[in-house]
Amino acid sequence: MLYLAYIVLILSLVNLIRMAFFLIASELYDINKIGQAEKEADFFRLNYRPLVTVMVPAHNEEATLKRNLTSIVNSTYKNVELIIINDSSSDRTGKIALNFQKKYRTKFKMIKVLNVNVRGKARAMNQGLKYAHGTLFMCLDADSVLTVDALEKGVAFFREKSVGALASNVKIIPGKGFMNLLQRF
Predict the structure, then answer these.
(1) Rounded to an integer, what distance in angstroms lies between the CA atom of residue 97 and that of residue 73?
(2) How crowded is residue 109: how many other Cβ atoms within 10 Å of its Cβ?
(3) CA 147 to CA 151: how far, in whole Å?
(4) Phi, psi at 109, each rounded to 5°
(5) Complete edge-to-edge strand list for the sheet that includes strand 110-116
(6) pTM of the entire structure?
(7) pLDDT of 59-90, one tens digit each?
(8) CA contacts within 13 A on the Cβ side of 43
(9) Which stretches within 74-164 are classed as H helix?
(10) In the CATH hierarchy, which fold is given to the domain comprising 49-157?
(11) CB 75 within 8 A of CB 52
């Protein structure tokens, strides 16, 4: 019986090492790809500037929406239309979105605030798609932020005809509490 315990322990250790390897290797892969994209960035910035539709579905996001929208304004990529979809919020989310629209109307090709009652992120985004004009489309959760060059770097990958979609490398904003610590881990 003791041998069985040792076998389970060894296999568990091997699996733990395997998972650690994949976590580290995926980060190294991302770093390598970002390095390649930065080397080619001048070409991309000069020659490929499609309109990007950024959609922000929001339900009761008054605590995070302003920070999210400010990160989009601060982006180095300027050929952007912004669609904010306020889905059945009972807090000040809609008011924050409208104030933002008034303040930053000239910063975007178009900025639109939709007030919908569809109860769900996918349905809200489908409503927003009716107003989208961009060649590229991005969905950004209202409780997240963009780095200043995220759109610039993301658009760069789409100059290749074989690229149809792009996923971001999400980093959790440090906060208080056990759940935040668990998410960051």
Answers:
(1) 13
(2) 14
(3) 8
(4) -60, -40
(5) 110-116, 80-87, 52-58, 136-139
(6) 0.72
(7) 999 999 999 999 999 999 999 999 999 999 99
(8) 10
(9) 93-103, 121-129, 150-157
(10) Spore Coat Polysaccharide Biosynthesis Protein SpsA; Chain A (3.90.550)
(11) no
What lies within 8 Å, CB to CB, of 163 at 6+ separation is: 157
Residue with tokens 């919020």: 89
User: What residue ranges do the domains of the chain occupy?
Assistant: 2-39, 49-157
SS (H, E, C) 39-79: HCHHHHHHHCCCCEEEEEEECCCCCCHHHHHHHHHCCCCCC
**Residues 6 or more apart whose Cβ sits within 8 Å of residue 154:** 138, 166, 168
Task: Give the dihedral sign, CA 111/114/119/124.
Answer: negative
Q: Cα separation of 81 and 111, whole Å?
A: 6
Residue at 13: amino acid letter = L
Instruction: Give dist(CA 67, CA 69) in Å, integer.
Output: 6
Amino acid, res. 185? F
DSSP code of 173?
P
The percentage of residues in the chain with a pLDDT greater than 70, rounded to a whole number, is 92
Q: Token pair of 38, please?
A: 């930065």
